[in-house]
Amino acid sequence: MFDYRLVNSERVGILEDFQAFLAERNVKREGDITKENIRDYIIARREQSKDIKNIINIIHEYSIAAKNGFLASETGSHLDSDWHYKKISQIAKAELDEEVWQQVFDNVQMPKIGWTLDEFANFTRQMYENLSKTVTQEQIEKIVHNHAHGSDSSHYSELSDVLKNQGIDGLLKHMNEGFIKSMEASRDKGELWWGSEVDDDVISFFKENPLMCRDGNKIINKKNFYVPKRYLKETDDKLKRYYACHCSIKRQSILQDEGGLSHSLCYCCLGYDKKQFEAAFGRELTGRVLHTVMDEGCFECVFEVDIPDEIS
Question: What strands lie across the sheet with 302-306, from one edge to the other?
């Protein structure tokens, strides 16, 4: 089933084990693998291995090399889900009174690898409700936003020079063009772009609808779509929102009867996206979530970042 030439010899054993597991379930082709197959494999191996994340990562990296968007997306959704909650709990403990933190997180079974996305979404919904009963909305947004701090931003190092030489408008033009070039490179090489297929229609859309623009002393930053090819063709409102969202857990919540989670939880995405501008300006910036696909009837995620007063 799997093309073992796409991984080094040390990793073949993991793929062989995964293939044997699938064969026991009569799955004979990559295209027949389901979400349930992947989850069942993770649960089975989670109890046997001390490094289940490495196992998932090997399959994830293979799926990207094999241009299997479904397998890449599904394995990617399992990689760090548990870690996110641990970090949010740590940040909340530092930000909140001990008594408040205990009401939300103490003696709670924290998520772990192998949970279904519905289980993750249900936990997140309950966590948000518990926080909402004890702290302000501003505190929740701060906790979620700070979850993004500490992530690597070294790949944005050239942006400060672009800002210095070309100004804000030139910076945004440079960033929009770089985004297009990355998609064009993936299309031309026949590779997945961030785990998803892109084509001429996708690229044309983003050329006509740039992600970043300036509005006075604000930068308006739209989030690109997680599965842009399906998003552009989808006519069902709920699925269109689903294909737009980058967070596997929030994305799943859109399909639940309760509806999407609060867009306050999207301050995490704001924190990550804002890093590129903070690298350019060389300082921490303020910003806010305007609206996201967590909001009923909204089909894009839009953030606003404040331009420092002394920079024109």
Answer: 212-215, 218-222, 302-306, 287-291
Average pLDDT, stretch 38-59?
Answer: 88
Angle at 46 between CA 40 and CA 52, to 5 degrees: 110
Global pTM reads: 0.83
If asked whether residues 229 and 262 sit together in one domain, one would say yes
In a domain, 71, yes or no: yes
| Closest C-alpha among 296, 284, 1, 4 to residue 148 | 284
The answer to whether residue 270 scores a pLDDT higher than 80 is yes
Which residues, in sequence order, are bridge partners of residue 303?
221, 289
Domain, as residue range, for 117:
82-146
Length of the chain: 312
Residue 136 shares a structural domain with residue 20: no
Q: What's the chain's Rg over C-alpha atoms?
A: 21
Q: Give tens-digit pLDDT for 77-103.
A: 787 767 778 888 888 888 888 888 887
pLDDT at 150 over 70: no
311 belongs to a structural domain: no
Bridge partners of 306? Answer: 218
Distance CA 254, CA 125 (A): 12
Domain co-membership, 137 together with 183: no
- The pLDDT value recorded for residue 312 is 63
> Same structural domain for residues 175 and 295?
yes
Count up the domains in the chain and report the number: 3
Q: What sections of 48-113 are H helices per DSSP?
A: 52-65, 69-79, 81-95, 98-104
Q: Which residue has the tokens 């009569």?
A: 26
Confidence of residue 155 (pLDDT cuts 50, 70, 90): low
